């Protein structure tokens, strides 16, 4: 492509491109001019710590040399429609099954997270002969019509009125729960009892699957209380319902385990993945199914498909990406760096506006409040996406950018999910920037005339 100067790129972008989830007049995108590891530089030469791995996919960091090398060989890769066997498709499926829970047997490849979830719903319906799908409030499963119906937050409103048979239940969200629990186990029991009731009210024999982000990511890294995931598994087994875990964001090392399900004593029936399988170097997603489900389709037609299922370029990049996780011990490294991050997050609690911090591996959220005692959120529910452009969360994310800390927010939570290659020094440098931005934010917007540090409690 010929060189186009920055002003022209921005003008053409403004004139011809529609940007997602935003009012177009609010879009003033930067251009990434250079990128390496956990850093990128914009058109003005300003350096940023990429503290959300773009959209939580660049686990191996920007411009990884092994993947750059792989791209040099793209010309040698044959293009082949899904009916052909190819080396990269077979190899990647095998590599994924090797690192997935032991009951998993086969992979169906799709293009990204949302369509993988759509295919998982169809597979669950075909296998069970049932039609209802349970999924949770405060979840995000993608923007297609099917995944949009699964999603339990304001981004689903554009697919409403929704599909019949898509039922929502509550995600445990202990920081904002009004009931007091003596232990995490007690909280899990509370939510499980309500889920059990809802299953009974809906008719267990009509429910094909319970669909969950193993750890809801965009909605604020909501880590399930102890015993909850195991309890959902038990309910699924009891009623013959499939347990489907969406590992699109939490999978591939993000939480310090290869898949987030490994934090719990569970084996889901189906798992979906995308992002980290290629780290975004080429689009790819997929559905992993258990041995039982895989065997079922030996004798029954798998009535789903797509032109690029198992696309040779993406699966080749996927093979190289999975090798990197192993060669660089990225999953173990993420667990180790997660401890450094958790420690820095604990320290943030001294700030008056930090209501809660949640962290598992390099998957973290900082939830901001106007008032620690009342927990009043910085932004009211559903006010993201253009409605709050001049609001406090936008101001804070703007200040983070001004300090060179790149990330995004959802509701009142700020995502912190850097590439898994980050070092302890880099993590500490970035968190220093976060604290500087937070100090400025409180001084400028929240408590301009007050002592800024809240008493420790
Ligand atoms: C948990 C989860 N599932 C599904 C998706 C949708 O993936 P995609 O944007 O690739 O369709 C996302 C996107 O962020 C996600 O976080």
Automatic annotation (TrEMBL):
UniProt-listed Pfam families: Aminotran_3
Coiled-coil residue spans: none
Family annotation (InterPro entries): Aminotrans_3, Aminotrans_3_PPA_site, PyrdxlP-dep_Trfase, PyrdxlP-dep_Trfase_major, PyrdxlP-dep_Trfase_small
Domain of life: Bacteria
Presence of the UniProt keyword Transferase in the record: yes
GO MF, one example: transaminase activity
Stored PROSITE patterns: AA_TRANSFER_CLASS_3
Protein keywords: Aminotransferase, Pyridoxal phosphate, Transferase
NCBIfam families assigned: PRK06062.1
Protein name in the entry: Aminotransferase class III-fold pyridoxal phosphate-dependent enzyme
């Amino acid at each position: 492509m010929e060189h186009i100067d920055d002003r022209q790129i921005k003008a053409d972008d403004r004139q011809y491109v529609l940007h997602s989830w935003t009012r177009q007049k609010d879009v003033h995108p930067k251009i990434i001019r250079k990128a390496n590891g956990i850093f990128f530089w914009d058109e003005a030469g300003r350096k940023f710590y990429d503290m959300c791995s773009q959209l939580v996919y660049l686990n191996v960091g920007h411009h990884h040399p092994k993947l750059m090398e792989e791209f040099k060989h793209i010309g040698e890769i044959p293009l082949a429609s899904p009916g052909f066997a190819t080396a990269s498709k077979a190899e990647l499926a095998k590599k994924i099954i090797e690192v997935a829970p032991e009951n998993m047997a086969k992979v169906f490849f799709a293009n990204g997270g949302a369509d993988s979830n759509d295919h998982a719903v169809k597979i669950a319906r075909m296998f069970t002969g049932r039609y209802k799908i349970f999924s949770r409030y405060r979840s995000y499963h993608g923007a297609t019509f099917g995944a949009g119906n699964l999603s339990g937050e304001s981004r689903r409103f554009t697919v409403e009125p929704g599909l019949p048979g898509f039922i929502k239940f509550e995600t445990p969200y202990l920081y904002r729960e009004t009931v007091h629990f003596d232990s995490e186990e007690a909280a899990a029991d509370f939510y499980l009892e309500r889920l059990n009731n809802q299953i009974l009210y809906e008719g267990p024999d009509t429910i094909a699957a319970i669909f969950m982000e193993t750890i809801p990511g965009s909605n604020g890294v909501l880590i399930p209380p102890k015993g909850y995931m195991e309890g959902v598994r038990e309910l699924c087994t009891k009623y013959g319902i499939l347990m489907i875990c969406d590992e699109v964001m939490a999978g591939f090392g993000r939480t310090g385990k290869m898949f987030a399900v490994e934090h719990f004593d569970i084996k889901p029936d189906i798992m979906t993945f995308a992002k980290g399988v290629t780290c975004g170097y080429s689009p790819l997603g997929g559905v992993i199914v258990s041995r039982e489900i895989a065997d079922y389709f030996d004798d029954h037609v798998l009535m789903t498909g797509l032109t690029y299922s198992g696309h040779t370029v993406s699966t080749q990049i996927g093979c190289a990406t999975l090798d990197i996780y192993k060669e660089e011990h990225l999953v173990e490294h993420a667990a180790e760096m997660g401890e450094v991050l958790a420690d820095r997050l604990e320290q943030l609690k001294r700030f008056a506006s930090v209501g809660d911090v949640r962290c598992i591996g390099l998957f973290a959220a900082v939830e901001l409040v106007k008032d620690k005692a009342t927990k009043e959120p910085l932004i009211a529910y559903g006010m993201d996406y253009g409605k709050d452009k001049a609001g406090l969360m936008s101001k804070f994310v703007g200040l983070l950018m001004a300090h060179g800390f790149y990330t995004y927010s959802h509701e009142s939570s700020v995502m912190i999910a850097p590439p898994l290659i980050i070092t302890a020094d880099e993590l500490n440098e970035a968190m220093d920037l976060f604290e500087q931005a937070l100090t400025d934010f409180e001084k400028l917007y929240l408590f301009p005339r007050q002592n800024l540090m809240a008493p420790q409690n």
